Amino acid sequence: MANDLDLYDGGGDIQPYSEGMPVLAPLSPAPWRDSPDTLSNREIDEYQGQRSGPTLFGSPLPPGTTNQQINAVLGEIAGVFLSDFTKLGYPSSLIQAAISFFMDNATKAPRQVRRQHQFKLPKDQQGDWLAEAFANHLQGLSGTLQQRQQFLDAGLKWLVLANKKLNTKPVGSTPAQGRAPSTSELTDAEWEELNRRNEALKIATENTLRQRWGSAYSANMEVAQQFLNQLPANEVRHLSQITNQGVMLNTVQALTFLFESAIGANSIPKDSPGIVREIAECERCMRTNRKQWLADDARQARYRHLITLRDGG
């Protein structure tokens, strides 16, 4: 993934996912009922008077920045976010929802956002339109308040780091290492080189996943493909963005994300008794409803994963 946006180093400020955090009590009464809009009309008018051109997460872009350049950077951001938060162990459903939110809101100008969530924001981001909108987005997702609060904290910290990185290498300048220019701007030789890198990426990814999944490689890839086929078109476009190493969809991180989303990896039991119970449920289904079992590729893949966990793999 792109070096200029490589935010996660395994020991930074963003905390890995942990189900052991104390549950945060919801605010009462619901805070958005009496809260003012986070930006007044005057503040928005003043901002728009200062920012006449396109923006990215509220920061102005250089004059002449094209939509193709913006989309290339957004694709890179989505890929790095996917990679970072997969490494940190956050639930795939939250990762997917956050990427969609960022892609949909990255280029929007500040606007009125009424607080409609029960989360606690950092003091320096209380009233920030993007932070409030992101929190509102998470409010409507499934999962415990604890899970979503932890994800919100990590996501906002990541955005701060991403903005700092982007400000050191503005969109529209010479492509940074790791970022591919628009494919329409590539020469025949550059396109050939990008295609070569993409083929090399596919081979490296296949080797990694074959080693990880063993004899289940082909079946797991089919499960990942089935999940991809069910995604909305805009999310497929995010995963199909091109970096200077190739198509994001050909990376280990993207394929692992799709597979784990398909089998519901974030809901797999963490304790041995729970794993054994679910294995028994799967085997009961095999015996009593064979037709249903054979038609459910994702459940079969989940069963294989449970067996691997049970056996210490």
H and E string: HEEHHHHHHHEEHHHH
Look at the helices and sheets and give the structural class: mainly alpha
Mean pLDDT: 75
Number of domains in the coordinates? 2
Task: Name the helicity range.
Answer: 55-70%
- Work out the helix count: 12
Shape: globular
Poorly predicted tracts of residues: 1-6, 20-51, 172-184
Rounded to the nearest angstrom, the distance between the terminal CA atoms is 27 Å
The rounded Rg comes to 22 Å
Within the largest sheet, what's the order of strands? 1-2
How many strands appear in the DSSP assignment?
Answer: 4
Percentage beta strand: under 5%
Largest β sheet strand count, sense and barrel closure: 2 strands, antiparallel
Keywords:
mainly alpha; 2 domains; two-stranded antiparallel ribbon; globular
What would you say about this model in short?
By secondary structure, this protein is mainly α.
Protein architecture, described:
By secondary structure, this protein is an all-alpha fold. The protein folds into two domains: 3-183, no CATH class; 268-310. The chain is 56% helix and 3% strand. It contains twelve helices and four strands; from the N terminus they run H-E-E-H-H-H-H-H-H-H-E-E-H-H-H-H. A two-stranded antiparallel ribbon has the order 1-2. The protein has a two-stranded antiparallel ribbon with strand order 3-4. A hairpin with a 2-residue loop joins strand 3 and strand 4 (246-247). It is globular and about 65 Å long. The protein starts with 40 loop residues before the first helix and ends with a helix.
Question: Secondary structure elements and their pairing?
Answer:
Layout: H1 41-50, E1 55-56, E2 59-60, H2 67-87, H3 92-105, H4 129-139, H5 145-168, H6 188-213, H7 217-230, H8 233-239, E3 242-243, E4 246-247, H9 252-263, H10 272-288, H11 290-295, H12 297-310
Antiparallel strand pairs: 1-2, 3-4
Helix pairs in contact: 2-3, 3-4, 4-5, 7-9, 10-12
